[in-house]
Amino acid sequence: MIYVFLSLQEINTNMRYLPIFFSILIICLLSACKTKQVAQTTAAQQFSCAFYNVENLFDTLNHPVKFDDEFTPTGEKKWNTERYFKKLNSLAKVIEGLGFPTLIGLSEVENNAVLKDLVARPLLKNYNYGIVHYDSPDMRGIDVAFLYQKKHFEVLNSDKIRIPFPDEIEKGYTSRDILEINGKLSGQPLNLFINHWPSRRGGLEASQPKRVHVANYLKNRVDEIAKKNPEANIIITGDFNDETDNKSVVETLSCSTNQDKVSLLYNVSAAKDQAGLGTYNYRGNWNMLDQFIVSKALLKTGSIKAGELTIFKEDWILYNSKKYGPTPNRTYGGPNYYGGYSDHLPIKLDLMVY
Hints:
Blueprint: H1 8-13, H2 18-42, E1 45-57, H3 81-97, E2 103-109, H4 112-119, E3 129-133, E4 143-149, E5 153-161, E6 178-185, E7 188-196, H5 204-228, E8 234-239, H6 247-252, E9 255-256, E10 265-267, H7 270-274, E11 280-282, E12 285-287, E13 290-295, E14 304-311, E15 318-321, E16 325-328, E17 332-333, E18 336-337, E19 347-353
Parallel strand pairs: 1-2, 7-8, 9-10
Antiparallel strand pairs: 1-19, 2-4, 3-4, 5-6, 6-7, 8-13, 10-13, 11-12, 14-19, 15-16, 17-18
Helix pairs in contact: 3-4
């Protein structure tokens, strides 16, 4: 900035300086306008993307071809209208605690109806969340879903990635689809994948081939996108039922845990995992099962940049177990109703859009 100090007496005495004075004044004004325009152009807009395994968000109705009988008023868990709406209000409170994320991936939701009930909660209805959901072939009827603030995110396309399992892995096995969304966050292109990989039922090693199989399907689709556009903005999130250093994530999906050595995908959750933090407490041990993975384009200041990853671990969402210490305050433990939030903690990734 150039400062010019001329008194009125000097100007009147030296009229020949007037053209110079006004020329400098014009240059200063133009420079100030240009600086303001650059600042406005480079200022980042702040958004966030969250993921939450909401632990069996079922309605109270019995679906004739799904194994959801336990989540009915006459079922083992005596799941009724009062408990259902308490669960919805509890989840809405968590979303409020997360700061009403712009984008939200969910797992363990039964159908589109429960999602409509969720976004209609008093805490959420003013945020005008849109819904993307497809029914999957999961035997219990639980799916993944995507919520988004319509004000900031535009869905261009969405689809499900269905994953058939060969008999050599397990005959007749079905699992959740992967949900793929292509859209624009504040005008910038973004591809998202919401996951809920097969559980560890039967043990980590015995169940590993199922998750590796799912990871292969996801990797093939991500590679297709990257082949067309190596600088594509991609966010992969979900409950992987594996940690950041397991085979399905590191080898099959080829996720780097070192930000300085990224071929295509970087696991933002790796640092939390390496620090002994996690989202699921198994007998006192924290497991980082819920993760955020991003393409290398989000690691630099381009159109969208990934920021800080947060594990939402407020005291009010936890139960202090005498045996295992603080653990997620869940809705059920077997047939026992605890009235909590979920057996997983949610995670949130800050995003900057330029």
